[in-house]
Amino acid sequence: MKMTLTVTDRGTVTLPAKLRRELGIRGNDLLIAETTGDGVLLRPAVTLPVEIYDAERVAEFAAAEGELAEWYNREKATGEISDPGIDAGSDQ
Fold this sequence. Notes:
Layout: H1 17-23, E1 31-36, E2 39-44, H2 55-78
Antiparallel strand pairs: 1-2
């Protein structure tokens, strides 16, 4: 879809309803404006949910990391896996 839009004296551009519907843009959605060789590209800003880890969740990760290090060291000792050059459990 191609259309001509007007920029007001305040720099406001109104996206027609038909264009917003086609692109799935709703009121108060954020857009990223990016300059390109052809002009300005407007695209929806993607927001991703963020999980905030509480102390219990951090402890779960630490336990899983410890189990993985134990498994890796056992497998390495039996020759089941080759050494990728990193020691499990080290702080590299």
